Amino acid sequence: MIGLAVALLVLALIAYVLGARGIAGFSMEIARWLVIIFVILAIISFFMGAFNV
């Protein structure tokens, strides 16, 4: 999931440089949500592993 977020971030940067600001903003929003979901799932996974006795 984090790889997809990085790919969308690179796409957003390339689109911004080429002048497609709408696509760049949309890609950045998707990348931001993917990073947020990744962090939440990583925290949940950490706590599930920490309490698994």
TrEMBL record:
<protein>
    <recommendedName>
        <fullName>UPF0391 membrane protein RG963_11510</fullName>
    </recommendedName>
</protein>
<dbReference type="Pfam" id="PF07043">
    <property type="entry name" value="DUF1328"/>
</dbReference>
<keyword id="KW-1003">Cell membrane</keyword>
<feature type="transmembrane region" description="Helical">
    <location>
        <begin position="30"/>
        <end position="51"/>
    </location>
</feature>
<keyword id="KW-1133">Transmembrane helix</keyword>
<keyword id="KW-0472">Membrane</keyword>
<comment type="similarity">
    <text>Belongs to the UPF0391 family.</text>
</comment>
<keyword id="KW-0812">Transmembrane</keyword>
<dbReference type="InterPro" id="IPR009760">
    <property type="entry name" value="DUF1328"/>
</dbReference>
